[in-house]
Amino acid sequence: MDNLRSKSHLYNVIRAIQVVSFGPESIVILMLQQRIPNVIIKLFRSFIDLSPNYYQIQYEDDMELATISDTGDIIAGILKQFVQNHSVLHRMITEDTFFMIIRIMSAKPVESVPQDAEPAYMIWKYRTVDILKSVDMNGEVVQYLHSRRCIDLMVRTWKEYITKGYLTFVDHREILLGLDLLYYQFRGSAKIQFHGLFEEMSQACGYEELCKTYGNFLCWKDYPHPIYV
Question: What is this structure's pTM?
Answer without folding.
Answer: 0.90
